[in-house]
Every structure is written in structure tokens, then in C-alpha cells.
Transcriptional regulator/sugar kinase (Spiroplasma cantharicola), 313 residues
Amino acid sequence: MRRYTFDIGGMGIKFILFDNQKKIDSQIIKFEQNERMRNTISFQIELITVIEEIKKILNLEKDNFELAILIPGIVDSVNKQVLSDSAICNVNLDLPKIFSQYKNCKKFIIENDARAALIGEYYYRNDSKIKTQIHLTIGTALGVAMIINNKIYKGNTLKAGEIGKGFFSLSIEENLPIVAYCGVGAVLFKYKMATKAEEFIDGKKAFSLYEQKDPIMLKLFEELVTGLTKLIINLDFILDYDLLTLGGGISNNEKFVNLIKAKLNELENFNYEGRILYQNLDAKNKVEVAKLKNEAACYGGMYILENGDKIYE
């Protein structure tokens, strides 16, 4: 069976076509920067615009196929609804009705993109020793998903893992969300504002500027790496996971991953006035780059199509 999987992000769509479990085609579709994207931190694009891009590919398919849409935000995979805006806005669409026009589409599923990436990575690894696994999708924003005691955890209202919307600081003065410090999109936005540039640069250009020791980018990357590392350590204190995998766009950048590993070593001791109050010596040994890297969500979509509801049991 031909299986179309579309992983929707803030800057574009990753598409992989599988023949059963075999990857046979892939493509990246980048969104154009419209006026709203040039002037907001959210990079939001309307869901209907995304759907039109997906339909351009599906319109060429003559054979029977299955379809997986992996999208950020709160997702009701049972009723096939996106329940909240994220990098994708105006999400209140009847997706089953939209895709019912394809009579050769034999199965259609949607899932949160970070959760799909976790499913892809967990099933690809197939390691019986891993009972509790966390997956961070670090891209334009930040996605988190978790398997606890071998079960995918979605939460009471399906928002488990929407950690980017939580408070970054517990202080009285600051109310910024975690994604303001732990997403690449925030780095790009802050750099654009600081330099008064006309358009956003992309993540590759940002890291190039970091390596060139651009003073603004050095500060922004220190914020990003420190924020992500503190989040990784906090998640270990909360869930005491067996494994935390790093996915999303940064997973292809070995140098960036090494910055996080170095920061994990640096922050393993909690110091106050010259004394070590407590430590976390475990987290640094439980963090790995996703084996599927930035393709994990598409593989997760493929596994869901293949296994159906059994994947959540």
C-alpha cells in the first residue's frame, strides 16, 4: 500500500511516500514568507493553505493510498480534528470531508507532529529496555511527546506535551512561554528585530552566523541551548525517563547537539553560594539524537497507518 505522510511545520512541510514500510519518495515544501510571517514571532500560516499544498501532490496519485497528516497543536486523532492553533492557524476545518474527495484514499489519520515523531522513533528502535521515553521536536517551535510505561500518554484533554505554551520562568516578574527561549523560531525573530532585517533568515544561516561569532547570534544561541538543557533536566526530575531523544531540524546538526551535551555537563550541579545543593548526574547519559532525525514524524505516521489503534494500546 502506498502511504503518504505529511509532517507540517512552521516553515514548511516534510513529505515522505512509503510503499508499505519502504521509503520511496520525499520532498520538502517551503512556505513563502507573507506579510504576517514577516512581522510576528508565530510564523503562522493558515491550515487551508497547507491543505492546498498537500492536495497538489495527492492529485497526481491514481492508485489506492493511505494518508497521514502530522500537525502541531492539540490534536484529536480519534475524531480527526485539530483543536488548537499553533504555527498553523484557522484550524477549524472538516478534514475528513476535505480528503473524502479522494475515493482512492483508503485510510486517513491525523496526529500531533511531536507525538508522531515519538511513535516513529520508539517503534524504529524497538528496544524492550525503554519503558519511558521523551521526544523533543526542536524546530521553529518546540514539541514534546512521551511514552510512559510503554503507553503513549496524551493527557486528559489531549494537551500533554504542549510544554512550549508553559511558563519559562517561575519568577513573579517574567511571564514569557517556554517556546520564547526553546524554539529556533524565537531565535530567528529576535535576530530579525535586533538587526531590523526585512525578512527572516533560516536556521542554517543562523548557525552559520553563530559559527562566525556574530555577537547577537552568540547571545541568542546561548539562551536557546541553556533553555533546552534546563528543560531536559527538569523533565528528568519529573518523569525519570529511560531515554530522551532530540528530533526536529536541529537533529541533523551535530555541532548544535554537542552544544546541548556540553551544557548538560555544565549544569549537572545545582550551585548556590559556592555550595552544591543537589545534582542531576543521570540526564546527560540518557539523551540521544533521534535515529530517524527529522523524518521521525513521517515514520510515525507510517507506523500508525500500518498498526491502527493498536499503536496506542
The chain has two domains: 2-117+295-312, 128-293. The domain at 2-117+295-312 is CATH 3.30.420.40 (Nucleotidyltransferase; domain 5). The CA atoms of residues 2 and 22 lie 9 Å apart.
